[in-house]
Design a protein that fits this description.
The complex is a heterodimer. Chain A is α/β, with parallel strands linked by helices. Chain A contains six helices and five strands. Chain A has a single domain, classed as Rossmann fold, CATH 3.40.50. In chain A, β1, α1 and β2 form a beta-alpha-beta unit. In chain A, α1 crosses α6. Chain A is globular, with a radius of gyration of 15 Å. Chain A starts with 5 loop residues before the first strand and ends in a 9-residue tail after the last helix. Chain B has one domain: Cytochrome-c3 Hydrogenase, chain B (Orthogonal Bundle), CATH 1.10.645.10. By secondary structure, chain B is an alpha+beta fold. Chain B has 14 helices and 15 strands. In chain B, the strands form five sheets. A five-stranded mixed sheet of chain B has the order 1-2-15-3-4, covered by helices on one side. A three-stranded antiparallel sheet of chain B has the order 7-8-9, covered by helices on one side. Chain B has a three-stranded antiparallel sheet with strand order 12-13-14. Classes of the chains: A alpha/beta, B alpha+beta. At the A-B interface, α2, α3 and α4 of A face α4, α5 and α6 of B.
């Protein structure tokens, strides 16, 4: 049975190098959970604000660029129950064009609208490249670790996989 | 940030012009309360799309050029497919043209909803960004997101993807969407039409700076409808009209030192493409309901105040919803998704009305179907001279405002164009120099 108020979403463009990791991890999770949890992908970050309205827990997988070693998986709490992300993280988003409206912008906009879910867990995978083409080997090799991070969060919600890893 | 120069003049720097698509710069020089120089500096490097289209197969431009922009990929796909079909000498079917128009409605809805509410409205409501606007006007932002979603869903259903659609090919589509899937969109589109009509009234209550410009307007025109996915001819407010194939004879691109995007002239003069031009040259082709909405919002049949482009965009947004509903209501399953094409040596021009204005492509292809020459002319590069003209007028008209207020006014004047520097090549650091 699917938990109606839990969503896993892979964000990013499948054409843009490591930005494809969100969809790749979502696909891995979807395979293992067989409909027990709603798993979707989105390319347009503005679509997240509507997607997650009314949800309680949202696990977002996205490529990040924070200067860490490519392939590093980080889990960041960004929901309404967590403190706001540092202003620097979305300094460009509100004032920037829509080309710069990313996940941080979606979180900030939903918070302003009062529709940010209680928990938004960002599973961020440090990217090496956003150029057109395939994922970098380092990020490809991190898909399993990122999927495990998602599954750990699902387990906290009492949702277990239907197949073995 | 204001700097005082040794000669007593002032330089005002804004690190990045906000709420436009892409990156570039702006330089305004004022001496003795007179604007002496205005430059739109597009410093983003050239992207060389035209160069790497050479040597590719004639079937590839719809997919390659769609990647130029995540906001208006359909504009590129429509112009490139039309040009190639001209070269191949094929006529598509009415059903294919109708479906292209429906896909284009999706792009207009996505793009106009974003620009109207996320990028442009904060200028009139006095907010730095949509984030601050959302705290007070949450209902408006929610409406914007609903409208945007309608566009995304339409693009996904017809184009296969909400961004960079993959279902478009020279000759038509890879597959036609099923009527049932289109009908599923209907309730949201009906609500979208109501929202868009309400938005026309809402934005008409904004306080508009008093500025009218004597632009040469240029737009596509079609005998049957308001121009979106194609036009039968090009018309200008000067009275000139000619077939799409002759655009390269009238529009001349040229390089200026301060911009990495080519400027353009129309019959030797600066010109204006975009919603204001389309509206003014095609008011009679709008639906009665959209005409009425425009007039009741205080517009007349022509609009020359660039700040009122936000009202015109709302009218066009409503029109796109109406068109989408009209097309879906008349659609039936069973149409062939494409017509076959074979390579033929020749040259062809295709044009469509991107949300920001007329875009045109010209290709020359050899008898093997290999592209020998490509020219892509997006709206923002054609509008650069008009943007500079508006900046000159605005900076002069409001020269007595303080630097902060003048900068804001000038930034808003640029945003009137919904410029896509990513398309023109990508945008904006603003400098006002006073001495």
């Amino acid at each position: 049975m699917s938990a109606p108020d839990v969503i896993v979403v892979g964000v990013g463009s499948p054409d843009r190098g490591d930005d494809a990791v969100g969809a790749a991890v979502a696909s891995r999770v979807d395979d293992r959970y067989g409909g027990r949890v709603r798993v979707v992908t989105r390319e347009d970050p503005t679509a997240l604000v509507q997607l997650w309205e009314g949800a309680r827990v949202v696990i977002v997988v996205d490529a990040v660029a924070s200067g860490r070693t490519p392939g590093t998986v980080r889990v960041i709490e960004a929901g309404a129950d967590a403190p706001p992300l540092p202003l620097r993280a979305f300094a460009a988003t509100g004032r920037g064009g829509t080309h710069t409206f990313g996940l941080a912008g979606a979180v900030a906009l939903a918070r302003a609208l009062g529709t940010l879910p209680a928990r938004v867990v960002v599973v961020g995978v440090e990217a090496a490249t956003f150029a057109y083409g395939p994922m970098s080997p380092q990020v490809s090799a991190s898909i399993g670790a990122a999927a495990a991070a998602v599954e750990a969060e699902l387990a906290r919600e009492g949702i277990e996989a239907t197949t073995c890893a | 940030m204001t700097h005082t120069l040794k000669d007593g003049g002032q330089v005002l720097n804004v690190g990045m012009l906000a709420r436009v698509e892409g990156e570039g710069g702006m330089h305004i020089e004022i001496k003795d309360r007179t604007v002496v120089d205005v430059q739109l500096n597009i410093f983003e490097p050239p992207r060389f799309y035209e160069g790497f289209l050479r040597g590719r197969h004639y079937t590839e431009p719809p997919d390659i050029t769609a990647r130029i922009c995540g906001i208006c990929p359909v504009a590129y796909q429509s112009a490139s497919t039309e040009a190639m079909e001209v070269i191949c000498g094929v006529q598509t079917t009415d059903a294919i043209q109708t479906m292209r128009r429906l896909l284009y409605c999706g792009e207009w809805i996505e793009s106009h909803a974003l620009h109207i509410f996320m990028l442009h409205a904060p200028d009139f409501l006095g907010y730095e960004s949509v984030l601050e606007m959302a705290e007070i006007h949450g209902d408006v932002v929610q409406m914007a997101l609903r409208l945007k979603k309608c566009g995304n869903d339409l693009m996904e259903t017809v184009g296969g993807r909400a961004i960079h659609p993959v279902n478009v090919r020279v000759g038509g589509f890879y597959r036609m969407p099923a009527l049932a899937d289109l009908m599923a969109l209907r309730p949201a589109l009906e609500r979208g039409l109501e929202d868009a009509l309400a938005a026309v009234q809402l934005v008409s209550t904004f306080d508009f700076p008093d500025m009218e410009q004597d632009y040469t307007y240029v737009s596509l025109r079609h005998p049957d409808h308001y121009p979106l996915e194609r036009g039968a001819e090009v018309v200008a407010s000067t009275g000139v009209r000619f077939p799409v194939a002759e655009i390269p004879l009238h529009v001349e691109e040229f390089h200026v030192a301060h911009s990495n995007a080519l400027h353009a002239r129309f019959d030797g003069e600066p010109f204006f493409v975009g919603p204001l031009a389309r509206y003014t040259l095609n008011f009679d082709q709008l639906s009665p309901r959209c005409q009425e909405a425009a007039l009741s919002a205080g517009l007349t049949e022509t609009c020359r105040n660039p700040f009122k482009s936000i009202i015109v965009r709302c009218v066009e947004l409503a029109y796109a919803f109406e068109e989408a509903l009209r097309i879906i209501d008349g659609w039936t399953d069973g149409h062939a998704p494409s017509v076959p094409t074979w390579p033929r040596a020749g040259e062809g021009v295709g044009a469509s009305e991107a949300p920001r204005g007329t875009i045109w492509h010209r290709y020359r292809v050899n008898d093997k179907g290999v592209i020998e020459d490509a020219q892509i002319v997006p709206p923002t590069s054609q509008n650069q001279s008009s943007i500079e003209m508006d900046l000159r007028t605005a900076a002069q008209q409001w020269v007595d405002l303080d630097d902060h207020a003048l900068t804001h006014r000038c930034e808003a004047a640029i945003r009137n164009y919904d410029p896509c520097i990513s398309c023109a090549t990508h945008f904006l650091d603003l400098r006002v120099q006073r001495s």
